[in-house]
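Fill in residues.
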């Protein structure tokens, strides 16, 4: 049984210490069990924990079997046809006996749990759980059933879909729908996508052009389309910045000031190539300068640009610190628009160093407990240490990290760095558009940076203002989640606009929300004309905290995939597959 005890200790460990589930198992040298077996057991347990909870709670097993309760029915496998078939212990083991005594009741509850979810067979339930990791079936238990049942669908999508961006540099949406996704059925909403038990189902996004949502388990990493760069795994939210920039061939040159691994750079190039195609005439190729200060990340960026077929537009500047580029220099006079997606806390990332949540059964309601054993229940002896977030979800509670001293310090350092980059972007003499984004959910890195930027000397003198909601590209104008009014207070007037206008100009994405995105923030800045005679500006003056380079900031994945960890891994495979970049010639030297 040590396999089960070890699984239990992994599953009940604190959620905020020890890294991902995989690293907790494979890096723990004190475990006796085979890491592969243990990992399989804990991941299966997590996947099935919602069903297990229901079966155990409804059978009231824990109210009558003290042994099971004290040992903790912490892990089990549901890979077989009944809830008990996976328990690998001697038949005479007291724990196994305590469970098998209730076999009939447990099996009956298991059947009911399956039917409640609308699955006609165990295989159908298994397929859905394997596809959606168990969470989707949870959505179906409150009275509604999935498409296998009475056709109803859950009211809210719960999972992070696999977002796939069609790369217009190499292909078109129509071509991909006729080839890579020819045998996929189309659904009208994420809710339907999540309710589907089919792997071959997709939803065409209604906000960002050329973006598809697929089920989270969709495996496209080996498709020709992915390998040749026709499709790119990119979270929907991460597609907002380039789209919001609304790049046109008249904008002049572009800079992506924080470019690696290259999702937004290649998206920008893709949007420009569509513009070129729409123009119908052979236009001069637009220029995108992709700055990346980190040497190894710049290599990944180069590969991504190459794979996406954007070499003819993008010039990667490896080991280039954006802040060391002189925006006043004549060399950058042609730059009209910038993307700025700086390193941030990454608090909006889905799956970052995440420990999956285990849903545990309770011993039943007070009433159930009283009727079953008529004894007053004692509290579980094993208590979590204070101030430690457990990976077990006992009851829904807000697990938002509190702004402790450390976090607050870190955020203030990060936001100082982000502001510095933003004000630097404002200094490019011909620039008329800047899009700023973070994958952070903290106002300090988002609205507060916007307010401080608008209050800056350079913003006022060069007349930078926010790109108002009504000016935004059609797909994003309708996006409902906007900046927090309270977080936008403190505007000093001038050209910044009213607090409401600024808050409404900010687009936010919720992590784990019904839109299926990661947590994200994006805002556009524009100016209506280029103002000259302002080279005497010292834009960074007056900005407070110093950026601490040692901070653990989020710098995006080291690959092209801002999706689930598995996709990130597969992208990494592509990026580090030994394929060398072709040594693309620089179009011109700066
Ligand atoms: C959040 S990631 C960017 C993700 C990227 N925009 C994408 O969509 O794939 C931030 C990147 O900016 C780089 N970076 C941070 N500060 C920089 C600076 N001052 N100059 C250039 N690159 C910088 C980091 O090394 C990191 O690769």
């Amino acid at each position: 049984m040590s396999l089960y005890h070890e699984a239990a200790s992994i599953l009940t460990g604190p959620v905020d210490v020890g890294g991902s589930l995989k690293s907790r198992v494979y890096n723990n040298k004190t475990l006796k069990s085979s890491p592969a077996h243990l990992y399989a057991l804990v991941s299966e347990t997590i996947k099935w924990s919602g069903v297990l909870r229901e079966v155990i709670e409804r059978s009231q097993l824990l109210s009558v079997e003290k042994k099971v309760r004290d040992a903790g029915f912490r892990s089990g496998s549901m890979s077989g046809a009944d809830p008990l078939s996976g328990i690998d212990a001697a038949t005479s083991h007291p724990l196994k006996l305590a469970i098998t005594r209730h076999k009939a009741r447990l099996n009956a509850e298991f059947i009911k749990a399956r039917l409640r979810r609308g699955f006609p067979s165990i295989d159908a339930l298994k397929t859905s759980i394997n596809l959606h990791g168990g969470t989707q079936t949870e959505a179906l238990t409150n009275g509604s059933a999935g498409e296998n049942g009475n056709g109803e669908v859950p009211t809210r999508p719960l999972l992070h879909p696999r977002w796939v961006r069609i790369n217009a540099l190499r292909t078109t949406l129509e071509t991909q729908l006729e080839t890579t996704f020819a045998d996929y059925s189309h659904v009208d909403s994420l809710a339907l996508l999540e309710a589907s038990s089919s792997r071959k189902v997709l939803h065409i996004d209604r906000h960002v052009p050329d973006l598809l949502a697929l089920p989270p388990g969709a495996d496209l990493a080996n498709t020709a389309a992915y390998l040749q760069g026709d499709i790119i795994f990119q979270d929907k939210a991460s597609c907002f910045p380039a789209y919001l920039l609304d790049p046109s061939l008249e904008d002049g040159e572009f800079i992506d000031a924080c470019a690696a691994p290259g999702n937004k750079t290649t998206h920008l190039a893709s949007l420009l190539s569509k513009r070129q195609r729409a123009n119908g005439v052979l236009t001069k190729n637009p220029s995108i300068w992709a700055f990346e200060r980190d040497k190894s990340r710049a290599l990944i960026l180069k590969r991504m640009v190459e794979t996406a077929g954007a070499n003819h537009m993008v010039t990667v500047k490896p080991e280039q610190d954006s802040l060391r580029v002189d925006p006043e220099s004549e060399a950058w006079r042609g730059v009209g628009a910038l993307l700025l997606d700086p390193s941030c806390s990454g608090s909006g990332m889905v799956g970052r160093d995440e420990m999956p949540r285990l849903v545990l059964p309770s011993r039943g309601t007070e009433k159930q407990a009283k009727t079953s054993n008529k004894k007053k229940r004692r509290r579980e002896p094993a208590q979590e240490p204070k101030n430690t977030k457990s990976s077990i979800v006992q009851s829904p509670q807000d697990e938002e990290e509190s702004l402790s001293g450390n976090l607050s310090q870190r955020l203030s350092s990060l936001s100082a760095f982000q502001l510095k980059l933003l004000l630097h972007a404002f200094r490019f003499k011909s620039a008329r558009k800047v899009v700023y984004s973070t994958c952070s959910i903290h106002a300090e890195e988002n609205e507060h940076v916007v307010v401080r930027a608008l209050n800056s000397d350079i913003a006022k003198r060069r007349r930078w203002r926010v790109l108002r909601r009504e000016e935004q590209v059609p797909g994003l104008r309708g996006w409902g989640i906007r900046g927090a009014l309270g977080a936008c207070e403190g505007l000093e007037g001038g050209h910044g606009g009213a607090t409401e206008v600024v808050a409404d100009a900010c687009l936010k994405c919720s992590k784990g929300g019904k839109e299926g995105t990661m947590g994200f923030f994006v805002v556009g800045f524009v100016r209506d004309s280029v103002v000259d005679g302002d080279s005497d500006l010292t834009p960074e003056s007056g900005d407070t905290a110093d950026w601490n380079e040692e901070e653990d900031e989020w710098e995006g994945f080291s690959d092209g995939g801002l999706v689930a960890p598995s996709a990130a891994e597969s992208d990494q495979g592509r990026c580090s597959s030994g394929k060398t970049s072709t040594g693309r010639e620089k179009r011109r030297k700066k």
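The pocket of S-adenosylmethionine is lined by residues 238, 258-264, 291-294, 297, 321-323, 341-343, 555-556 (CB under 6 Å).
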